[in-house]
Hints:
It contains 8 helices and 11 strands. It is of the alpha+beta class. Strands 1, 3, 4, 6, 9 and 11 form a 6-stranded antiparallel sheet that branches. Strands 2-5-10-7-8 form a 5-stranded antiparallel sheet. The protein is elongated and about 75 Å long. The structure holds calcium ion. The site of calcium ion has 9 residues, from loops.
Amino acid sequence: MRLSPQVANKTQRTLATLLLSAVAILFFVGGPKETTLPSLGYLWNLGHIGFFFCTVSVLLQYRSLRTSMHIWLLCAVVLAISLCIESIQFFIGRSFSLVDICRNLLGTTAALWFFGKTKIPYTITGAAILIALSDLTGFSKTLYSDYHIFRMAPVLEDFESGSTMSRWEGEISRDTSQVYSGNYSGKIILPVRKYSGTTLTFPFRDWSAYKTLEMRIYNPDTQIMEMTLRINDEVHELSEEQHFYDRFNTKLKLQPGWNTITIALEDIKTAPLKRDMDMSKIVRLVWFIGEPQKPAEIYLDDLKLTN
Ligand SMILES: [Ca+2]
């Protein structure tokens, strides 16, 4: 039996509504892990735009918006729904994100622009353009940073490009006063507080083809400085307990001046007590002093894998 256009349209609308309802579950389950590549995580979050674009496009098949007031009303409804979604996410252990709310409104505006029949108020169009530009810039930067990490390998960090600094946590900045190679090193300030240090997340993660980890650290003090280097693989990072014995930890004794540190990757691989470290998924390096007695600083450079 051939469906009439009206029935076919109704069927399509119903199918689209069911599909979007199913996809909406992804607001609350699934999604990127803490160890997911930043650009993939960003791409996932851009799904907010796609979802609301599709949802409002379907809605416009049911009901056409004839006045500016209708458009403002739709935006208010989307805002209210978005606040509900983000609030639920907050209470189930995810985060409340104003950026995601803006993305929902951007998706809504894009659907109105493509399929609506009424002129969109300038304020809404202007806001949507700003959100789109912000996301375009943010995603491009994240994508370039991920690409740069792969292009640099087996160098993990040389501080020559500012695009990788978003992966560092702690009081760290590119510096030119003490440099081992190139024009920059990473200056790390170590204030007096527990576990004072810096963290590199999302390094080039596949260390399986290499034999050693090397780095140069400059200690400007006249005394030997003791630090701990901690390395996590993905299994450890995603484990709930993050036991001390399930990761690599080593003490670094930093003499005054430049220090060359070489660590056999076999030692890192066999560091966990009950398993081998997954050397194809190294996700975090942490340099820290447990309980510093006085403020300190170090300079890190030429962090790389070698054979
Ligand atoms: Ca350098």
